[in-house]
Amino acid sequence: MNRTGKYTVVDACNDHGAITLREHPRNGTLYVVEYDDEDVEAELSSLDAGSVVELELRRAGRRGNAWCAESARPIEAL
């Protein structure tokens, strides 16, 4: 399963490399726990809580709400 959309950073990247996001407009919560490459990880790791980012995601294994970020593009506003 893949998804693309705009997300708000709820909790910035933690010591384990995970980031908590809220999707728009439904306000569902997602957890990015994997990254396709170091550039995507660096981009997301640099964001603070409240930042908005457009992402392409795919499920991370069988975990229910864990995702792998395939691409990330910070945006100014919704």
Question: In brief, what are we looking at here?
Answer:
The chain has 78 residues and is mainly beta. It is built from one helix and five strands; from the N terminus they run E-E-E-H-E-E.
Topology:
Elements: E1 2-11, E2 19-23, E3 29-35, H1 38-45, E4 52-59, E5 66-75
Parallel strand pairs: 3-5
Antiparallel strand pairs: 1-2, 1-4, 2-3, 4-5
Detailed description of the structure:
By secondary structure, this protein is mainly β. The protein has a single domain (about 1-75), classed as OB fold (Dihydrolipoamide Acetyltransferase, E2P) (Beta Barrel), CATH 2.40.50.140. About 10% of the residues lie in helices and about 50% in strands. The chain has a 5-stranded mixed beta barrel with strand order 1-2-3-5-4. A hairpin with a 5-residue loop joins β2 (about 20-25) and β3 (about 30-35). The model has no long low-confidence stretch (mean pLDDT about 90).
